[in-house]
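Supplementary Note 3. Input sequence used for the single-chain structure prediction.
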Amino acid sequence: MTAVDGPATVAARGQRRRRDWSDAVLGAYLLVFFAFMFAPLLIMVGAAFNDYPTPSITEWRGFTLRWFIELPQDARMMQGLWNSLMVAAGVLAIAIPLGLSGALVLSRLSSRATGLLYAILVSPMLTPGIILGITTMIFWRDLFGVQAGLFTAMVAQASFISSYVLLMFMARLSRQDRTLEEAAADLGASPFFTFRRITLPFLMPTIGTAALIALLQSIENYNTTFFAIGPDWTLVTEIGSRMRFGLSPIINAVGVIFITITVIAAATWALLRTRTAR
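The predicted structure, written as discrete structure tokens, is reproduced below.
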């Protein structure tokens, strides 16, 4: 501190030093965080282009597209992918209407039972996937004679994915201006007309987001699907079963394709949302 430095100058310098230390710590934390998150993905991507019989980047044998070429020739992998898409389509058809219906009921219901009903509807999220898969398989087999397969996997997945969808719709409905619905009712509009012309357009962005999240959750789900699908298989359960015998870089090729599709879909969705907002 020089003779011309006053208390205010010293305090400003101390505050600047503390800010510099805080920025340095935050920068280091973010660096470690992103390295922890994305380093495995980068390794997986690198292994997909390595001409080595097992996934590796340390044993580099040259760049190749061999595993991407062999992927379509793997019959079980391609059938598993098709089964995953079929199950995901069924999950969307079940989870979106169920989640929307539950959110509408909970957001409109004024009763002491609302808290209990909410706990019941979101409880599948907290139930272990093994339990959901086994109970669904037993329920449909013993009561309706439906053997475990793609249908039971679809129902088992929808039982907990619909809870996630419900929470997303409830978050959106909590920001809705209810006076518009009340005004429509005062003008003689029927409940269905009010829902179709006011509530549904307001929920359309959330419907798209919920559908995308439900699709991803369905495709990547393993525990529930494995115990409910019986002799059939999806892409994820097929990959899981092959881990006992050693992985092939074809799995890495699948990962690269899914990452690429996810990034393109996310960027497209963000671009459309930005244009809509403008």
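Residues 46 and 57 are 6 Å apart (CA to CA). The chain has a mean pLDDT of 87.
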